[in-house]
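Lab notebook page, bench 4
Experiment: in silico fold of construct C2
Operator: M.H.
Input chain length: 228 residues
Purpose: comparison with the prior construct
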Amino acid sequence: MIETNLTPLMLSLKVAALSTSFVFVLGMVFARWMTQKDFWGKNVLESFFLLPLVLPPTVVGFGLLMLFGKNGFLGQLLHEWFNITVVFTLTGAVIASIVVSFPLMYQSAVAAFTGVDQRLENAARTMGASEWRLFWTVTFPLAWPGLLAGFVLSFARGLGEFGATLMLAGYIPGKTDTIPVAIYFAVEAGQMDKALFWVIIIVSLGMGTTLWLNWWSRRNVRRYANQK
């Protein structure tokens, strides 16, 4: 009989929700800045932002382990100043998810902000709107469809993160055993029924997320076409 402990599901949803909240804000901030500024080294910085997309998750996890580990710069800083430990904690899982899902949000936000009509923004400026008010009353509403798409994709990516999470957060039942990690160790232990159960759960979540995003995108495309 399959174990009915739903802790991995709860942990996965918690990690995905927390990481996506951070990624949504960070992705918007950096995307807005990058679309408005032109400076030396911009391409290098943007390549760095997108690096987690092309690196194996274990490489990303190794880098995070070196950074947040016991002897890492940020790891020592957090432990000495705030008594916070990242390795083998749920915080580590959230950080890993933030890093691997950030490129998806960043790319979506860049595309969304680039698609905003600059004439509308300039018109708001001529009417005396501050940059802060301009962003929330003009730019953000116009870019919202692309930003929402990035949010949903980042959530799905955070939900399914495995490699970097395993490297940084490890496998501690009841604390860091998210669904992907639970699947791996269930297979390692020969518990194929348990692994299949979690595979069905995460596939259902991922499929539901992408189906909703596709439906929402098509609806907005049709609405835009009808308004023309």
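Observations: The chain is about 80% helix and 0% strand. The CA atoms of residues 115 and 143 lie 7 Å apart.
Next step: discuss at group meeting.
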